Amino acid sequence: MNKFVIGVASVIIIGLSISTFYYEGTRKEGPQLWSEQSPQLATEDDQTETLQPIYTDEQIGYSLQNNQLQITFDQGVNWVNVPVELDQLFSGEFNGNREELIEHSYILNEKRTAFLYSEGLAEVGKRVVYIYSTDQGQNWEKTIVTEPYPSMRFRKVAFLSDKFGYIIVSGDRTMSQEMSNVFLTYDGGRIWKETNRSGVTTLLSDGGFIDERVGFLSFSYINPLEPILYVTEDAGNTWESATIDIPEKYLEIFVTAEMPYKENDHLAMLLNQGPNGDYLGGKVKGKFISNDGGENWEFAMEVDPDKET
């Protein structure tokens, strides 16, 4: 009888040891990989409501219906569930509609599917998370970009190649002040490293990189009077204020810088009129050109988006 009791106790102890070891192993930080074992694909017949895709191109789209983020790569014939709670995608300071994903907070194409969001219980103790798939949703990898991080406001993720990408976020807003942070990856999104900070606490309006070294941050007040643009030419190691030569007739009209872009042998950038612009209806923008990598900008012409083809 004693041998039987001892044997049962031994089995219980071994079982508890295995469970503890497994739990400790799953708590380790770093990239977390999901390889879905159960089928993720679902046809429209399986849905409680017929899904109406929001297309990013002719074949690829997503849906937020049924309180679930789902993606399709074949015009809605088959759907893949994304392992992210819908509330997490809009967590932070966001007052827009929740019928579409936040602009620039995701990537959805044939080669890469990715979503940027925050998770955690306390607003001051959340973490910024990047989850992505390179096989159209069959497997997902999740990485922690930074933690803790306050309530996010601005968020943007983009890749310039298979390996190089950037994430730009802002948070902890108080009136017209907030913190902003830039993160770069050189391995396709598994590891993100923060660049040095710009030192600017004005509200972030846009930002991005045009290659692995040159990037921009655009800041703006609630009622802006002039653009505030910072540039880096060393992958965020240093940030410097760019000089924008605005003709006198456009002072306090073109007040917010949009993300610069490459055009032929120079850089181009649009300045818009901000939220309260009324010059020629408020939609006309000023186009500026830089021939020195974004440090100095000269006016080129007015641009009316409604008249562009």
Please describe what this structure looks like.
By secondary structure, the chain is mainly beta. Helix content is 9%, strand content 40%. The chain starts with a helix and ends in a 6-residue tail after the last strand. The longest helix is centred in the N-terminal third of the chain and has 25 residues, at 2-26. It has a domain at 30-194. It has helices at 2-26, 86-89, and strands at 32-35, 41-43, 54-55, 61-63, 70-72, 78-81, 106-108, 113-119, 126-133, 139-149, 152-159, 165-174, 177-185, 193-194, 204-209, 215-219, 228-232, 240-241, 243-245, 256-257, 261-263, 266-272, 285-290, 296-303. The strands form five sheets. Strands 19, 20, 21, 22, 23 and 24 form a six-stranded mixed beta sheet that branches.
Average of the residue pLDDT scores:
87
Give me the count of strands: 24
- Written as H for each helix and E for each strand, in order along the chain, the element string is HEEEEEEHEEEEEEEEEEEEEEEEEE
Structural class: mainly beta
Strand content: 35-45%
The radius of gyration computed from the alpha-carbon positions, rounded to a whole number of angstroms, is 24 Å
N-C termini distance: 89 Å
Counting copies of identical and different chains, the oligomeric state is: single chain
Shape type: globular
